[in-house]
Amino acid sequence: MTNERGMALLVAVFMLFLLSLVFIHYLSVYESEKRFLQLEKEWNTLDNLLMTSLEDLLHQLSQEEENGSLVAGKIQYETGSVNYKVTKVKDGELILLEAFSSIGKVRRAKFHFNKDTGEISLWMEGVNIQY
């Protein structure tokens, strides 16, 4: 029994060390999840900007005969803005969209729109699309 002095202190320090490691691990997981949710929210905002501007732009293109031709412009929304560029090609229009969120993130989309059939084809999306 006399050789067991300090054993309780050693066990307590070891348990404290173990609990600290578990706490630090869960704190790290929490911070990662928090960053992921921020990125997911930003991604969804940019996706919403692209889809909303797509609908608005296609509506404007359908009324193009009355208003003249669309070439380029900017559409402003509450959550950001979208620049667009319309280029005539032989069987429709090539449309480039560039969405900017309110905190400065960018996402681009490029697609071909056939006005006669209303078909969207060759959709490409990402950051590295040339505008």
UniProtKB/TrEMBL annotation:
<dbReference type="InterPro" id="IPR020372">
    <property type="entry name" value="Competence_ComGG"/>
</dbReference>
<keyword id="KW-0812">Transmembrane</keyword>
<keyword id="KW-1133">Transmembrane helix</keyword>
<dbReference type="Pfam" id="PF14173">
    <property type="entry name" value="ComGG"/>
</dbReference>
<keyword id="KW-0472">Membrane</keyword>
<protein>
    <recommendedName>
        <fullName>Competence protein ComG</fullName>
    </recommendedName>
</protein>
<feature type="transmembrane region" description="Helical">
    <location>
        <begin position="6"/>
        <end position="27"/>
    </location>
</feature>
